[in-house]
Design a protein that fits this description.
Blueprint: H1 7-27, H2 31-54, H3 60-87, H4 91-116, E1 122-128, H5 132-139, H6 141-148, H7 157-172, E2 176-178, H8 190-206, H9 208-231, E3 237-239
Parallel strand pairs: 1-3
Antiparallel strand pairs: 1-2
Helix pairs in contact: 1-2, 1-3, 2-3, 2-5, 3-4, 3-5, 3-7, 4-7, 5-7, 6-9, 8-9
């Protein structure tokens, strides 16, 4: 077996290491570092499957490893980071929110694994529910806001707990959400897409917290439009691919 075919699984293992280190960072009070490591894990999750297909190294073990990594990195780690960040004063309610969010993530991944991930006639333009990596990025919105505007904004633990439950519900819902895997653009517009990507990358490096807040709000605002677009394409079914 060529060593190059081990690269996708190595990327997945690095993502798990980033998630574990995020928990350690949060325990020691470095919540912002923990958030950065979760974002890194999400970026690695976006490329490991593509690497496996490019290198023709897809395997059952790789698929299971990726699913386990998704549950840990996007179901367990963000919930624990939020709990250590601002829910310890609301221990019972806060821990209940952690459990609800993590269980919803597990249910979403289980639904993906048992067979609704590749139905014939499904519409590749949509996911069913919010994907687990996006759920992790969404659920940490209170941390982004507090980091961007630390003085004027304070979140109550109950409000954060309710928000976590709502994001968990969005993950297990049947709400259609946008998928970028099959999106295409006109060749003439490619330069504008690349320029936009460069602007977003620059904003993330320069104003990371404000940029993350804007990205989360834009995604949440796009959900009604995804539902409307999906209803116009009734012959298809959504797909829950991660």
């Amino acid at each position: 077996m060529p060593l190059v075919q081990l690269i996708p699984n190595a990327v997945t293992l690095i993502a798990i290491g980033a998630g574990l280190t995020a928990v350690r960072a949060a325990i020691h009070g470095s919540v912002h570092l923990a958030v950065g490591l979760i974002v890194l894990a999400a970026a690695l999750d976006a490329i490991d499957g593509r690497l496996a297909r490019m290198l023709n190294s897809e395997s059952a073990i790789g698929a299971e490893l990726d699913s386990l990594a998704d549950f840990f990195n996007f179901g367990v780690v963000p919930a624990l980071v939020l709990y250590l960040w601002g829910l310890q004063d609301e221990r019972d309610v806060g821990w209940a929110a952690v459990l609800v969010y993590a269980i919803c993530c597990a249910l979403r991944l289980a639904r993906f694994n048992v067979g609704v991930k590749a139905e014939a006639g499904s519409d590749p333009s949509f996911f069913t529910g919010v994907p687990a990596p996006m759920g992790a990025l969404l659920v940490m919105l209170p941390i982004y806001v507090s980091a961007a505007w630390p003085d004027p904004i304070r979140f109550h633990g109950i409000a954060v707990s309710l928000y976590m439950a709502v994001i968990g519900a969005l993950m297990v819902s049947t709400l259609p959400t946008w998928s970028t895997k099959k999106m295409t653009i006109y060749a003439d517009h490619a330069r504008f897409a690349l320029a936009l990507g460069a602007v977003v990358a620059a904003a993330l490096f320069t104003y990371p917290w404000v940029t993350l807040v804007v990205m989360v709000l834009v995604y949440l605002a796009s959900l009604p439009f995804a539902l409307r677009a999906r209803r116009r394409r009734r012959p298809f079914q959504t797909t829950p691919e991660e």
